[in-house]
Records
---
Amino acid sequence: MDSIKDRINNLAKAMGKAAPADDAYVDYQTLRKQYEQQANAEIQQLQQNSKKQRINDLHGRSDLNPKWTFANLVEDSDDVIEAVSIAQSFIAAHEDKAWRDEGSHMMLFYGDYGRGKSHIAGAIAHQLIDQYEITVLYRQLSTMLELRYFSYDFSAQDNIGQKFRAAHQELLDVDLLILDEVCVNESVLKKNTQSWLGNLLRQRLVNKKNCILITNHNLAELEHALGRYCFESLKEYDTYKVRFSGPSRRSGLAADEAEASDVTPRYQPNQVR
């Protein structure tokens, strides 16, 4: 009985075409393996492209400063070095499913302005998005409170109430919530605000959602500013307290040396006499 190769050669002769060269023939098993490898490579490429798109979407929805990365962070003081070490441990812990499922975790960054608190919080968030596709939301507390207050304007025509409810639901659902400027310029929050924030944190606790809170207050001042009910909700979390005490990393506004020093300014704001 003629082999498949012989049949192909005979068919080529009958059609007036040259017989295929010996090295052009590929048996079925080899051909199938080649097609499977090609298909797997295409699937992997599609998966990589899909993951990249998901990660880009997560970064876009997070409202994080793109410059807040560990690569852009200068570790020039002991407090920053320690904070980065704690941050990396927090990130690495996400590899353990049992750690993620056991409860809610809170990182509390406190210290004066310009110490790098927001930068490190943002760096944590960026890395969690890249490595684990964690959903992240960065918000300044004062912005959310303003939106909340405006939502009580029942005569407004811009659907402010609906916008606030949608924003509040985002705060509840996101995997990692970063609340910055907590109690900034506030010695104590209003009672209804304390209750709202306390309830938000407690609901996230129940749903095993993690938080990063950033404040310029020390812990005693923060407890007073948040009120007991709200501050007690922080204690329910597995909390990592990180104090920033190094020098400010923000450049100052230098006086213009060309200006005459004997000129008295016409207006001096915030002067107490």
---
Amino acid sequence: MILPLPEGFERHPLRVRRGTVEAIRHPAAAGRDRGETVVMVPGHFGSKEDFRLVMPLLSAVGYDCWAYDYTDQFSATGLDSYNDYTLDLLAADLVELVGERRVHYLGHCMGGLVARRAVLERPELARSLALVSCGPHMHGLRHRAMWVGLDEMLAGSGLMGMWPVVQRLLPEGDELAAGFWRSKLETMNHAYVQGTADSMRTAPDLTGELAASGVPVLVLYGSRDRRLWSHEIYHEMAVRLGAAEAVLQGAAHSPVMERPEATAMTLLNLLESAQEVCR
């Protein structure tokens, strides 16, 4: 199932050395192009379409917006080894896609962990990084419980066991999005799900390295988001990074879907300030 997108979007299947990446693009509005690109990276069970409400808002003021799925994330014939889906390899794919462009990165949850690595691999090409609902690591007690639950689910009910969790992240009453996500869970590459989970549970805290990179960072999360990280952990990470911090009222774990206008306005503050730093 393909989720219909509003007018102005483009779909791009892209090749990297390791496989195929599906992308969507919303070009900068005619006559307002700033010559700057924003690259958006989804969470573990997310997809590029999660950003469909934010992308037009940023494009309207001049940013060329792209959002990617992960390499062969929804392909039954793509990468088939758990070892193909480490955060480092997914970040390398992202760096390959970006090429020599200087870009602003936005990563949601796991996408923040991937984008953080892409920034550290080529910091000279990163204009800024927005970490949306993304903490420093996934080593806490709540994470350990989550990994155990995920392992049990995959061994038992399979990926459709995630449906109750995904439902809670979707806008209430959005039947189109619900049908789209049921379809995604039915087609998602099992190796991707298990491999990324295995990588996340051991991934190191790279906050110090990111702070030393000098790349402007925003830590953004919802006022109701305590599912994976507490507000205290988000705040502590922002302090360590010397980053801007924003709490979106009324949003939970998916501000880009729950509060797209507020998310876009907050991101614009980062993008505008990063222009001054990067000149």
---
Amino acid sequence: MMIGLAIGAAVIVYLIFVYNSLVKARQVKEEAWSGIDVQLKRRADLIPNLIETVKGYAAHEKTTLEEIVNLRNRAQAVPGGDVAGRAAAEGLLSQALGKVFALAEAYPDLKANQNFSELQGSLEGIESEVQMARRYYNGAARDLNVKVESFPSNLIAGPFGFNKATYFEIANEADRAVPVVTF
């Protein structure tokens, strides 16, 4: 009888341990997503200043600038939990930002503008931060996914609603490239 109670208590303690480790993994994943979201917001906040700076030099490039504003707004409108949708929208935005920096080559005065150079440098730094946040998030998502799929924690994960996390990936290879920033 005592042995049965000890085994039952050990199983309950183990189940609690596994459940708590799943909760911790999910919270780390959520915190990691928050890090990506913060960096993407910083980038989105820089875009209007960049657009205004470029407008003065490249007025006839209106379609490119409008495209960036539209892509920025679309990326900001993606629901917070839609990792794949946000990754796709941000990839398109990164590609469009690359076009703005290509414009700088055609407009030497723009390229020499201190405000443009500072915005370009800030954006380059933020892109680096986004990459680090993305790697951290994907690592947290991997850890959660391993726990959700591994035996015996999968026996607890399913009934308690723990699901696999979506990786923050960019589907189009061309979108994976960080905008080229040249001075």
---
Amino acid sequence: MQFVEEIVVDEFLPTVRSLLAGALRDRGLTQSEVADVLGISQSAVSKYAHGDVATNDRIADDERVEALVDELADGLAAGDTTPVQALIEIEVLVRELETGGDLLAQLHEDTVPELADHGSSFRVHDPESDLRTSERVLSSLRRGLRILENASGFATLIPAVGSNLVACIPDAEDVDDVAGVPGRIFDVKGKATVPSDPEFGVSEHVASVLLAARDHGADVSAAINIRYDPKLLAELTERGHVTAEFEEGSDIVSSVGAAIEDEPEATVLYQTGAMGIEPLIYVLGSDAESVADTARSLI
């Protein structure tokens, strides 16, 4: 069993690093400078320079790889491109080459021929496949949860019922299409605690709010619930969010829908509570990371 990520690590990265190291040396950088730019050791640069690192000719000869290496080498050598910018550009190319039928996908299927014969209903390299779509949502959700876990003070925003950060697939129809934290996020001795990895179909309430907002035209794919506080609402408004109140009740779809229809640009929904119902704020956004960042900014 071999994953496409192993092709990236074992074939693509050594090849691109070798090409970049050579291109930077050609532009006058010392081995020490090349090592600093690429974030590797001088001995590794020496190995690249002497051809001691195996590279993949199919990757090295790809026109897009060649063009990006030249562009990045020019920018890094001149100081116009930072290592982080170069990393992002390479990541973008990796994603492009992983899609169905492209270079990395071909290399993967050459290594694991059974993938190509698996059937038309599922292709692991199809960027729109259900599996890859779901994994992208879960990956985004994990990153968002890490933001919250590492945010000192987030526990102060968790309501008594607990928080949940949720995210959905693009064509979500019901709670099974929404991923969240089983058991919710709780304040345990002043620390936000995520009890287990996110899964689909485990959030009922926050997922329902997200789906209801989407059903009534909100262009959002993630949400989180935090404790209600007028000061938090005011701060969110100051940060450019549009807020809308809805009435908590048995028909959450209608009440959230009415709020969205009144304020179509709303990215913050709230309800002030009722008998036995805790008041809550719901922050909506395009993905789990941006929603988590918004929540973190309130600390």
